[in-house]
Specification:
The complex is a heterodimer of chains A (463) and B (478).
Chain A (H helix, E strand, L loop, with lengths): L1 H6 L1 H9 L3 H5 L28 E2 L8 E3 L2 E16 L2 E8 L8 E4 L3 E8 L8 E3 L23 E7 L4 E6 L4 H6 L4 E6 L12 E10 L18 E4 L10 E4 L3 E8 L5 E5 L4 E6 L2 E2 L7 E2 L1 E4 L4 E7 L4 E7 L25 H7 L32 E2 L2 E2 L6 E7 L63
Chain B lengths: L2 H18 L8 H8 L14 H14 L6 H11 L1 H21 L5 E8 L3 E11 H5 L1 H66 L5 H36 L29 H8 L1 H26 L3 E11 L5 E10 L9 H66 L5 H38 L24
Antiparallel strand pairs in B: 1-2, 2-3, 3-4
Helix pairs in contact in B: 2-7, 3-4, 4-7, 5-7, 7-8, 7-10, 7-12, 9-11, 9-12, 10-11, 11-12
Classes of the chains: A mainly beta (463), B alpha+beta (478).
């Protein structure tokens, strides 16, 4: 049934686009976001006050107060997300982008969310981590009928627990999450909370992975393991905004994982504590310092630290392939392979052939070679000292002493105090006679257990 | 003119005709050339066995061989130089001589006899002459003329077939040479891939298994190169044979590529194909001549059979009485007429009638085949053009596009250099397929020309079997 409606999507999309204006009249106007840039934090204009979060390359959903109820309007719809400059992916999201807008509420708020389905198939929204009536939990078939294309459903419940949460579909979720349907939900404490610190900077993002064929624009929704686009809030480095902090600020970083694998999130230059999960604040006695925390699938982590070390510090997933753009995972390693006399021969049949990988792949970052259209390169991030040689789940944590309290703008590259940058040794060079590993392919002193016969020569008879 | 003289006219005419029948000095080559002129490249000439002409022809062939041999020159050389063709043309000369011999009146017979008995001595002189050959001379002259024309037409067809065979062999040889170039490039690339794989294995980046898989590609390319070499050599050999070349002359140079496809507007239209074939085909004209001959023979058959050979003789016998020495001379003539007592000519007449029917049916059958061949060869020609055009304007650009995309994917490290090489091989294969299609168009062009203006192009090519596209050798990138 799901499949059938998936394939008849074209017709239903037309129906979805023509939602009656009369029916919408009573609804809060949905706020559509056209930009993938990080929006200014939304200071609450009404309702209980709170310190707003900054959604990396995202924004917070405005609401309207209706008889004491906070009303939001999410529109599930196909979107085109600029995942990196010049690299566009056809996704499904909410209100013009994937991920959808962050919903920020305060503990105890009564929340009413209108969900309009402009997708070609039915959907639901599951409010991940919320305590709510069973019929509002958003599992299609179990808790509610799915929202058909063109229809608007209403969810209404009280935000009972403070913490970091998310929302995502629970109808055909394999497809809908692979297509980017997700968003953050932050419930701020209504008063000072013994386990929730006051912070000056509060950042939030979701981890998402996509499988986009080089040269294509729509994710392969059937992929289970071999993803090639690794994102914070559906953006890939170098397009992810930096996290900016004034020196001495207490900073909270909220990370949720909607990929199909775990991500060890690692911060340079500081240690942090995990102060909360989507289960709630972590008791003080259960916290320990870390520089890397693993965010497992479907989990959320709240990291907190004091930004006391000025500089541009990496913040990234420590799975090294997750800080890479698209690449072929089956390409053999070329390191150390002598190409002498072969490049010209290969160029005879492929004139544009260039030797790559002989010394490693670091050259890839500086090579400007044509790629298939709409393909996210493997590593293009540029730093003040050259190529950062990364792309994907990587960004920077920029701590500066001179920074306004509400200034979230990128302050540019860090200016290192004199004598604090690694430098080239100018003394005597390494002794050429120093011991060194033997040539590749031979293990010194290792007994040969199995020695296969050498291969037959290739076709001398043709000469 | 007196009536007596008038009565003598046929006899005189026959005598004149008989006197005129002489062997053509050029063995009918000019007659053959007249029939083939429109269908052969300008400047084509048949071999002349005269020693001076032979020397000139050798010089001419040598001059032609200085340049890369194009298709027209190949045909010119073949016409001038091929012993096989020369033999066929010489056979026509033999036939011409036989014709002239047949038209020559039999010599009169002079019979002398001397008979002696006791009383007399008799000397007999008789001059006899077979009248039939004289009386039938005008008819026979006409039939023999027709038969010669028919033989000339047949030889002209042989010339055209030889020219067509040469042209086909030239196309095959040039195409095979082009394919050999491709195979060499492919082998070189595969060898580079194999060598790279060997070096990969040497430093531990490839297993022996992975290396072996690339080695297999190299071996296949080497085998293919060997086959291409053989094919190019054999096709070239066939061309050399048809051109009558051997020794140092067989090292002639061919152009690097086939002639380009003509523009679509320059293609031969198919609407008048049948009419052209019926009007111009030499085999039809030969059969029509044969039918004429048989038809006239049909009328003559009964008479000829009944009267057989009418003989006339004049005798002058002298008897001398031995005793008296008195001569007695007897003069007189004798006419020998067979009597139609048993053979009334029925069998001969029936035979002639059947021969006529057979020839008429053969003509109809050949006309039918000519029409069908005109249609089918035009269709083949047109389809071959479309296929070649499709290969050149669609398939090859598509293969190039695929290769460009493969390079982009290689640039982005989505595919390995071996996958890139596999795509490049597939591109080279597409170019080779396009070359084959181009060759097939020109082959179809040769067949069409022959089917329309010459003769039947021979065994029709086997029906087209749509072949499956060669399996793509590229592996999908990640």
């Amino acid at each position: 049934m799901q499949r059938r409606s998936f394939f008849t999507g074209a017709a239903t999309a037309v129906a979805a686009a023509s939602v009656s204006r009369v029916a919408m009249a009573a609804l809060p106007e949905p706020v559509i976001q056209a930009s993938a840039d990080t929006a200014e934090p939304l200071t609450p204009p009404n309702g209980r006050p709170y310190h707003p979060v900054v959604t990396l390359n995202g924004w917070t959903c405005p609401w309207r107060m209706n008889a004491g109820v906070k009303e939001f309007h999410l529109v599930a719809e196909p979107v085109v997300r600029e995942v990196a400059p010049g690299f566009f992916v056809n996704m499904w999201g909410y209100n013009g982008q994937s991920p959808g807008p962050t919903i920020e509420v305060v503990e105890g708020d009564r929340v009413r969310i209108f969900v309009t389905n402009r997708l070609p198939e039915h959907t639901t929204v599951h409010w991940h981590g919320q305590r709510l009536p069973n019929g509002m939990d958003g599992v299609a078939g179990l808790n509610q009928p799915a929202i058909p294309p063109g229809k608007t459903f209403v969810y209404e419940f009280e935000a009972r627990r403070p913490g970091t949460f998310m929302y995502h579909p629970h109808a055909d979720e394999m497809v809908q999450m692979a297509m980017g349907m997700m968003g953050l939900w932050i419930t701020h404490p209504k008063a000072r909370h013994p386990l929730i610190a006051e912070v000056q900077r509060d950042y939030a993002f979701l981890l998402a992975a996509y499988a986009v064929e080089p040269g294509a624009a729509t994710p392969r929704v059937n992929e289970m393991t071999d993803f090639n686009i690794w994102t914070f809030n559906s953006r890939a480095f170098p397009a992810i905004s930096p996290l900016v902090a004034k020196q001495g600020d207490r900073v909270r970083i909220r990370v949720g994982n909607l990929t199909m694998t775990n991500h060890p999130i690692h911060l340079h230059g500081h240690e942090f504590e995990v102060t909360g999960t989507d289960g709630g604040p972590v008791p003080l006695t259960a916290r320990w310092p870390e520089v890397t925390t693993d965010v497992a699938v479907g989990q959320m982590r709240q990291l907190e630290l004091v930004a006391d070390a000025p500089g541009d510090w990496s913040l990234h997933c420590h799975k090294s392939h997750h800080t890479m753009g698209a690449m072929g995972h089956g390409v053999p390693t070329m390191i150390g392979v002598d190409h002498q006399g072969l490049v010209g021969k290969i160029q005879k049949i492929v004139p544009d052939y260039m030797l790559m990988g002989e010394r490693g792949m670091g050259d890839m970052g500086s090579m400007q070679m044509p790629l298939p259209d709409n393909t996210f390169p493997m590593m293009t991030g540029q730093g003040p000292f050259g190529n950062i040689e990364m792309g994907g789940m990587f960004t920077t944590f920029k701590v500066r002493s001179q920074l306004g309290a509400n200034d979230y703008r990128d302050p540019g590259w860090y200016r290192h105090p004199k004598g604090t940058v690694a430098y080239e040794w100018q003394g005597a060079p390494l002794d050429a006679q120093a011991p060194r590993q033997t040539a590749p392919g031979t293990a010194p002193g290792a007994a040969s257990v199995h020695k296969p016969e050498s291969l037959p020569p290739a076709a001398g008879h043709a000469h | 003119m007196s009536p007596r003289l008038l009565r003598l006219t046929p006899v005189v005419a026959a005598l004149v005709l008989a006197g005129c029948a002489s062997v053509a000095p050029d063995g009918q080559r000019s007659a053959v050339t007249a029939h083939t002129a429109g269908s052969l490249p300008a400047g084509s000439q048949l071999a002349d066995p005269a020693p001076q002409a032979r020397a000139a022809a050798r010089a001419q062939v040598a001059a032609w061989l200085q340049q890369p041999v194009d298709a027209d020159t190949a045909v010119r050389i073949a016409l001038l130089n091929s012993p096989a063709l020369e033999a066929q043309v010489a056979a026509l000369g033999v036939q011409d001589a036989q014709r002239v011999q047949a038209l020559t009146l039999p010599n009169p017979t002079l019979t002398l006899g001397r008979f002696v008995n006791a009383q007399e001595r008799e000397i007999e002189r008789q001059l006899s002459f077979g009248l039939v050959s004289l009386i039938t001379l005008p008819w026979r002259a006409r039939w023999q003329g027709w038969q010669l024309e028919q033989a000339t037409l047949t030889t002209a067809q042989q010339v055209l077939l030889h020219a067509a065979d040469t042209r086909r062999a030239w196309l095959r040889a040039v195409a095979a040479q082009q394919q050999l170039q491709t195979a060499q490039t492919l082998h070189e690339a595969a060898a580079a891939g194999g060598e790279l794989a060997r070096r990969m294995a040497r430093v531990g980046n490839f297993s022996k298994l992975e290396q072996a898989q690339e080695l297999r590609v190299q071996q296949e390319a080497a085998a293919n190169l060997a086959r291409s070499r053989l094919n190019a050599a054999l096709e070239r050999e066939q061309l050399a044979r048809l051109m009558g070349l051997w020794g140092a002359q067989a090292d002639f140079v061919l152009p690097a590529t086939l002639p380009p496809l003509p523009a679509a507007a320059a293609l031969r239209a198919g609407d008048d194909a049948e009419a052209t074939a019926l009007r111009e085909r030499l085999d039809l004209r030969a059969l029509r001549r044969e039918l004429d001959t048989t038809a006239e023979r049909n009328g003559f058959a009964r008479v000829g059979a009944v009267f057989g050979d009418v003989g006339a003789s004049y005798s002058r016998n002298t008897s001398t009485e031995r005793a008296s020495g008195h001569d007695d001379i007897t003069r007189g003539w004798e006419l020998e007429l067979p009597l139609p007592l048993f053979d009334w000519g029925g069998a001969a007449s029936a035979g002639a009638r059947s021969a006529l029917q057979r020839n008429a049916a053969q003509l109809r059958e050949t006309a039918l085949r000519a029409r069908s061949e005109a249609r089918s060869h035009w269709l083949r020609y047109r389809t071959a053009y479309d296929l070649a055009q499709q290969q050149q304007t669609e398939a090859v650009p598509l293969a190039r596009f695929l290769q460009d995309e493969a390079v982009y994917r290689y640039n982005g490290m989505f595919i390995s250099v071996w996958q890139l090489l596999a795509q490049a091989r597939s591109t080279a294969q597409a170019v080779a397929t396009a070359t084959e299609a181009q060759r097939d168009f020109w082959l179809a062009d040769v067949d069409l020309q022959l089917a329309l203006t010459g003769t039947s192009p021979g065994t029709p090519p086997s029906p087209v079997t749509p072949s499956a596209a060669p399996a793509a050798t590229t592996e999908a990138g990640h």
